[in-house]
Structures are given as structure tokens and as C-alpha cells.
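Example protein was shown:

_____
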Amino acid sequence: MKIARIREVYWSATDTTKTVVHTIAAHIAQALQLPLSTDDWTLPAARENTLTFAADELVIFGTPVYAGRVPNVLMPYVRDKVVGNGALAVPVVLYGNRNFDDGLIELRNLLEANGLHTIAAGAFIGEHSFSYILGKGRPDADDLAKAHELAELTLARLEKLDTAPTAPVEVKGCDPIRPYYTPRDRAGNPVNILKVKPKFDLDKCTNCGLCAQVCPMGSIVPGKVGEFSGICIKCCACYKKCPTQAVYFDDAGYLYHQHELEEGYARRAEPEIF
């Protein structure tokens, strides 16, 4: 098939998904000597627009995995505002060293339902949004080497394609999709952190406003440190990007879940490509 453009598309609150998607897309664009365009729909204003692709485009489409799936707050956008028009696609997910569960197969299914044809896919690891320990410093050089490998796999499959594939790429996961992963305490009781929001240390805060600027939900009120106008999805963009480390969490359930993840998933998970 003749491809005229490569498009990198991602939601990436702490830039880890962005890093992997860009590595793959830039490799392919350079190899094919094609233009590369970026669609970053992390911030609310970008999600007001419909993403429309063309049949002669290859789309590297990335989202994080939250609780083993495509984050529920992203689902309406991916489901309702993505128009494939027969474009080829490589779904990519990034998870915080626990497991990608059904995140990749769910993203693949959403893209296929929107008229994109998936030809390759990958699940990668990034530093967990909750933690500076879990997946520390990832994606690292080895992860990005695997991203280059996925790019080469995609190029090899493109070379063999005369027409769009009729079947989606095979990936790991269950279909029907399983429920979102639920953290539990040692007695097996669910730990509910849905309403937890960050706190701000006013002795450290310089009122720079960056936390409000980077919030993907637009929930931090500009100019009013500690005030929220909407939900917090625990993406931790404000926490990870605060230049003075003034953002913190003190909720007992949140901290319990964070520490359980850090202790239970200390092993190095490895990327998988399909």
C-alpha cells in the first residue's frame, strides 16, 4: 500500500506515552522519507476536535493503561471522535510496570471499530504516575530499542501489504473486555481512591500556575492553588511536573495502594510487540 503521511497520536499526561509513540513514528517516517504530523489530545481543548484520518496515512496511536484498560475518561473521545477512513494503525499502550491486562486489545478494538486497520501493536512500560520507584526512569534505552524494533516490524508488514488487512493484529488480552482492575487491601476489601485529589504545600508553591496548565481534565483552577473545578484522574501530571515538588497526596488509601504496587511489582516488566 502507498502511504503518504505518518501521524503520531497520543494522550500523555507525564510524557511517557509520548516518548514511545514518537520514537516509533519518527523511525518509520525517516525510513520511508515521509512527513510526520502530531496530534496531542492530552489537554481538554484538543479533545474538542474530531480526529480524522485518510486512507493513505499510517497512525501510531498511543494511550496509557489505567487499571488494566484504556482510561474510562478517554473512552468517549476514542470511541466518538476518531474517524479512520481506512487508515492503517499501530495501537500502542504504556503501563506502570504492573500489567497492561486488556488495555491493548481494547484500544485495538476501538480503532478497528472507527475504521482503522491495525497492522502491528505494542505494550510498553513507563514510570508509574503514582510513583518515582515503580518503573523508575522508564521508558529507558532498552524500552526505546524495543520501540525501534516495533517500527521495523511495522515497516516489514507495510512492505508486504497490497491492500488493507481484513483482520486486526493479534494481541494479548481478553475479549469481552474484563472490568477495570480494583486495588484491594490485605483483607481483600476494595480501596476506593476515585475521589482523592492532590494537596499543595503552600510553603513550596511559587504560584507558577503550571499545575493548572498541564492538568488533562482542566480541573485545577488557574490562580487558585488547591481549588478544583472537576475530577482528578490521578494522572499525576501536576505531581510529576511541579518544579518545586509542592504537590503531594496524603490520602491513606491512595498511599496504601501506591506502596502495595511498589512492593508487589518491583520486578522489571518488559515491553511486548505484536
About this structure: The CA atoms of residues 15 and 237 lie 9 Å apart. The two ends are 20 Å apart (CA to CA). Residues 141-160 form the longest helix (20 residues).
